[in-house]
Amino acid sequence: VSAAMWGALRGARRPPPPALRRGLAKPAGPRSVRQLREAEEAAPVFQYAGKAAKRKDRIFVWGFSYSGALGVPSFVKPDVGWKKPRRIQTTPYRLETAEKISSVACGYGFTLLSSNTTDITKVWGMGLNKDSQLGFQRSIRDRTKGYEYVLEPSPIPLPLEKPQQTRVLQVSCGRAHSLILTDSEGVFTMGNNSYGQCGRKVVEDETYSESHLIHQLKEFDSTVVQVVCGQDHSLFRTKKGAVYACGWGADGQTGLGHYNITSVPTKLRGDIAGVNIIQVSSYGDCCLAVSDEGDVFGWGNSEYLQLASVTETTQVNIPRHLPFKIGKIKEAACGGTGNIVLTEEGNVFVWGYGILGKGPNLIETAVPEMIPPSLFGWSGFSPDIRVAHVRCGLSQFAALTNRGELFVWGKNLRGCLGTGRMEDQYFPWRVTVPGEVVDVACGVDHMVSMVKSFT
Amino acid sequence: VRGPRFRRLKIGAGHRLDVKASGVFVLGIGHGNKLLTDLYNCHLTKVYTVGGLFGKATDDFSDTGKLVEKTTFDHITREKLERILAVIQGTNHKALLMHSNIDMKTQEAYELAVKGLIRPMGKSPPIITAIRCLQLTLPEFQLEIHCLHETQQYLRKIVHEIGLELKSSAVCTQVRRIRDGVFTLDDALLRTQWNLQSIQNAIWDCQLKVKTELEKTLG
């Protein structure tokens, strides 16, 4: 019995169930070319971007951060223990925004971002708010008080009649006031009004901080298409080509023929009467306007030789034509002490005082000097590079090429140039931004740029 | 008397060219080796044509390596590629100015920058002075790259990074040096011309070019 039992057990090797049957194993070895090719063809294909992938719009900020103007609260008050407060952001830093931003403006320590959406929230502001230049930002801790510094892009409530139809076209910021241009409801102004720069009557001993007042300006000869803030004055350009101004006039920057304060926007005369102006620019106390024929007109402060080509006086209170023979002018920008223009051929001319961009030897000039195009990347290898836009901060200049590159030069106040270094830059230097720069706004010690991603 | 004319030649090589690449390779013979060090100190640019293929990524960035990933590439257009190349050229131009060790605050730095003559005259990481796309027929493309202090593997890495930047992947199929300083493809000898007479003629033709270039750069 035992022998038969053992034999039955040993012999009864049941075949394994069909699912677990294995073939004989093949020896391993270096894979042949055919095996490699088959493995390659069988590998999965990943898709990171489809054919209709859109390019994303981004905002990059850099410069002095303690005023909150960069909109990154962790630079001022770190939210995590290992982070240290960052006083200066020397290279471009990405700012996450809720909506696609269409217009940016940098003031003296604060920034405004606006989107042309029809949602309720159209404008965001960050930075200094001691004169309510960002509107009333209600404090969470005490509902009756407002914030003096806004560290994050916070919505600015506008008293619109039709909030879901009106679109915000453009924003502009001065020293302590800001202007918001809408398409159908005129111009909204907020902030300091001690010189009438907000377009309303000056009230004596008015406290501007924590003020809810936002003034609306509607009476112009036609729709306003551009608003520009100087240091303590405002300029409005209308569709018919006229220019209106209000605010401080002690340097003649209102261009109205006197040196007093103007608190109601008044039309400018002088050499621009009857001329169709297509662009106005100002940031300090000097102003420039470009006509559709390519002529440039200037008024305001001339202590730094900005208008010395037409007059010896240091204040010009009526617009004067600047007879430069440099070609038809397409765009102009004013800084605190220097001016820059862009001609139709794509050449850049600078004049005034300060670091003008032609090396340390050129400190001041009354006549425009051209900056060689080779400094903007033009060469025999890439001959179709042109400068497309020029912008000015208080003592910096910025130029955008048609390839989307950003060049900056001037005084590097608290790292505002974005080059990664703290030294002043005497000739145009590229700023490395991961994307194609569409527009840039320059402030006193910070800059904000609108960038499209590559793919 | 019969026998080989030259015995025991001292031959020195110019800039390296690795096994998978091809093109102009400069050699110095005998007393020419001294000129080789002078040419190295001139820091002249070299020009390469680099061929690439979209859709694959390998571990050594060339098409003979082990496959890492396959991606789609139908979203790539010539415009996007040129944008990426413009940015590469821009950042490398910045690196060029920074490594040239000139104080940016002086007037002479400004004058040299205007003329485009700023170049690192010492050791520096690889810098691309100019890059452009010669042709793009998906999935293949060809670039012309002017560079300094580079290695061919660095150029393959650049091709891989261009692929990544375009949200796809790329491998390098061909690296060919078409100019090394003053020596171009026309001066180069083919495999069939590696005989005494052609070598002597080639040396004779290039002597004048090398002398003028050395005088111009090293003074």
From TrEMBL, chain A:
Signal peptide: none annotated. One of its GO terms (molecular function) is guanyl-nucleotide exchange factor activity. RCC repeats lie at residues 57-117, 121-184, 185-240, 241-293, 294-345, 404-453. It is found in: Mitochondrion inner membrane. Keywords: Membrane, Mitochondrion, Mitochondrion inner membrane, Repeat, Transit peptide. The keyword Lipid metabolism does not apply. Residues 54-336 form the RCC1-like domain. Its main location: mitochondrion. Residues 1-34 are annotated as: Disordered. Forms a regulatory protein-RNA complex, consisting of RCC1L, NGRN, RPUSD3, RPUSD4, TRUB2, FASTKD2 and 16S mt-rRNA. Interacts with 16S mt-rRNA; this interaction is direct. Interacts with OPA1; this interaction is direct. Guanine nucleotide exchange factor (GEF) for mitochondrial dynamin-related GTPase OPA1. Activates OPA1, by exchanging bound GDP for free GTP, and drives OPA1 and MFN1-dependent mitochondrial fusion. Plays an essential role in mitochondrial ribosome biogenesis. As a component of a functional protein-RNA module, consisting of RCC1L, NGRN, RPUSD3, RPUSD4, TRUB2, FASTKD2 and 16S mitochondrial ribosomal RNA (16S mt-rRNA), controls 16S mt-rRNA abundance and is required for intra-mitochondrial translation of core subunits of the oxidative phosphorylation system. This is RCC1-like G exchanging factor-like protein.
Automatic annotation (TrEMBL), chain B:
GO terms for molecular function: pseudouridine synthase activity; RNA binding. InterPro entries: PsdUridine_synth_cat_dom_sf, PsdUridine_synth_N, Trub2. It holds the Pfam family TruB_N. One of its GO terms (biological process) is pseudouridine synthesis. CDD domains: PseudoU_synth_hTruB2_like (cd02868). Residues 8-151 form the Pseudouridine synthase II N-terminal domain. SUPFAM superfamilies: Pseudouridine synthase (SSF55120). It comes from the Eukaryota. Belongs to the pseudouridine synthase TruB family. This is Mitochondrial mRNA pseudouridine synthase TRUB2. It comes from Eudyptula minor.
